[in-house]
Amino acid sequence: MARLTLRGREISTRHPFSDGLRREVADLAARVEALEAENTELRRHGLRLAELFDVVEELLVPLAARDDAAVEDALTRFRRSL
Fold first, then answer.
1. E strands, 1-82, in order
2. 79 vs 27, 45, 72, CA distance in Å?
3. Which residues fall within 8 angstroms of residue 10, CB to CB, at 6 or more apart?
4. Cα(21)–Cα(13) distance, rounded to whole angstroms?
5. Of 1, 17, 33, 48, which residue has the fewest beta carbons closer than 10 angstroms?
C-alpha cells in the first residue's frame, strides 16, 4: 500500500490516525473514479446532443428551401447513425 504522508512527513503505520487517513484516501480515490465516470458519460451525451443539433440544422435549411431530396438525405444519414 502507498505510504501516507502528512505535511511532507511520512506517517508510521502505528500512528493512531493512519487507519483513518487510509480510509479517507480510499474514499477520495473512489469518489474521483466515480466523478471521472460521470464526466465521461456527460461528454458522451454532449457529443450526441451536438450531433442532433447538426441534424436539425441540416434539416431546417433544406426545409426552408423546399429541397425534398436534401431533407430525405439528411434523415437517412441520421437514421444510419442511430
1. 5-6, 9-10
2. 43, 18, 11
3. 3, 4
4. 10
5. 1
Assessment of whether the complete model's pTM goes beyond 0.85: no
Largest separation between any pair of C-alpha atoms in the chain: 78
Low-confidence ranges of the chain (pLDDT < 70): 1-18
The grid cell for 32 is 474521483
Beta-carbon neighbour count of residue 78 at 10 Å? Answer: 16
Supply angle C-alpha 71, 62, 44, rounded to 5.
65
- pLDDT number for residue 39: 97
Nearest in space to 77 (alpha carbons), one of 57, 37, 64: 57
Cα–Cα distance measured from residue 44 to residue 40, given in angstroms and rounded to the nearest whole number: 6
Residue pair 59/75 in contact (Cβ under 8 Å)? The answer is yes
Alpha-carbon gap, residue 73 to 37, rounded angstroms: 36
